[in-house]
């Protein structure tokens, strides 16, 4: 079969570390994987691109031990072969949550991480849904986001942000988001955000103003270190900061005194390395909670721009440019 590989590069970053760019992505011949016990082989139709893929290409987010080095955390496709102890019907069109391997003609998937395509959603759009939905729902379950609370999500115009805005609104929360342009702020308000703020400004003060000085009950953060202190400032008493990304760095400074005074908590999670049983349970939550919301219109999928799988480098360039309002998919 064919799959995406990343060739070595002499290109280095400011610290002298080798960081392959989009030009290093190649479409090459590799062995076709075979499903083992509890697994299925899926013929890929489309693969969603996530920021984790960009980090993996650069050598900053390696796959878990034993997982394919090929990028790709979510796909849609057709079940074509079964391992032992699997009864999933061959020929079914499915959505799959992956730890890697999606940028390929075929991918092996644990059976518990397969779902049917949501009713009314086309396969290319569906290829961009499960990673976002699984991330947001599992994290909001973890921190106990509840009706009537104030929820702040950073990067509201991105895939995570778009889902999180609509999901929190459907739960009955007041939703605040940050994003970078007037266009993106308006886009987020149209999705249901009550307040959309420019992250270039003093968004902490704006959150306090909007909540009469109280702050946000729950913050979903993709930035990490850069926003650590600011997020604590923006939390309400008893608030919960949930960190799911490190776009703003991995090491930050924390004022423990502020955290103590607010009786607040900080948690951090990652979906990719979780045990298979946990991922299977999260996928079932997505099927029970998110799929009906997509079907009945409570949540609208992010707009999707597609590229042929052979042009994955161009797709990575587009996502890295910051000009994407939604998601990108690779198609076969």
From TrEMBL:
Keyword Signal found: no
SUPFAM superfamilies: GroES-like, NAD(P)-binding Rossmann-fold domains
Domain Enoyl reductase (ER): 21-330
CDD domains: p53_inducible_oxidoreductase (cd05276)
UniProt keyword list: NADP, Oxidoreductase
Organism superkingdom: Bacteria
MF GO annotations: NADPH binding; oxidoreductase activity, acting on NAD(P)H; zinc ion binding
A matching Pfam family: ADH_N
Chain spans, region Disordered: 1-21
Protein's recorded name: NAD(P)H-quinone oxidoreductase
């Amino acid at each position: 079969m064919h799959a995406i590989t990343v060739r070595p590069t002499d290109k280095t970053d400011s610290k002298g570390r080798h960081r392959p760019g989009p030009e290093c992505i190649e479409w090459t011949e590799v062995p076709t994987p075979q499903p083992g016990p509890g697994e299925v082989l899926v013929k890929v139709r489309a693969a969603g691109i996530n920021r984790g893929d960009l980090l993996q290409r650069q050598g900053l987010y390696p796959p878990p031990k034993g997982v394919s080095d090929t990028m790709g955390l979510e796909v849609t496709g057709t079940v074509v072969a079964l391992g032992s102890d699997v009864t999933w019907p061959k020929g079914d069109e499915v959505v799959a949550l992956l730890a890697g391997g999606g940028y390929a003609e075929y991918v092996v998937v644990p059976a518990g991480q397969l779902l049917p395509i949501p009713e009314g959603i086309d396969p290319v759009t569906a290829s961009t849904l499960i990673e976002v939905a699984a991330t947001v729902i599992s994290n909001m379950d973890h921190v106990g986001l509840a009706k009537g609370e104030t929820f702040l999500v950073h990067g509201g115009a991105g895939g995570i942000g778009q889902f999180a805005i609509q999901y929190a609104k459907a739960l009955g929360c007041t939703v605040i988001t940050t994003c970078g342009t007037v266009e993106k702020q308006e886009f987020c308000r149209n999705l249901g955000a009550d307040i959309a703020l420019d992250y270039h400004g003093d968004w902490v003060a704006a959150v306090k103003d909007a909540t009469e000085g109280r702050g946000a009950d729950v913050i979903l953060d993709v930035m990490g270190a850069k926003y650590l202190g600011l997020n604590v400032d923006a939390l309400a008493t008893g608030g919960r900061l949930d960190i799911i990304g490190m776009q703003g760095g991995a090491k930050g400074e924390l004022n423990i005194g502020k955290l103590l005074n607010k009786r607040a908590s900080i948690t951090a999670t990652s979906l990719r390395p979780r045990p298979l049983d946990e991922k299977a349970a999260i996928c079932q939550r997505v099927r029970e909670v998110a799929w009906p919301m997509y079907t009945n219109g409570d949540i609208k999928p992010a707009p999707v721009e597609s590229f042929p799988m052979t042009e994955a480098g161009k797709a990575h360039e587009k996502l890295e440019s910051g000009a994407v309002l939604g998601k990108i998919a690779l198609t076969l």
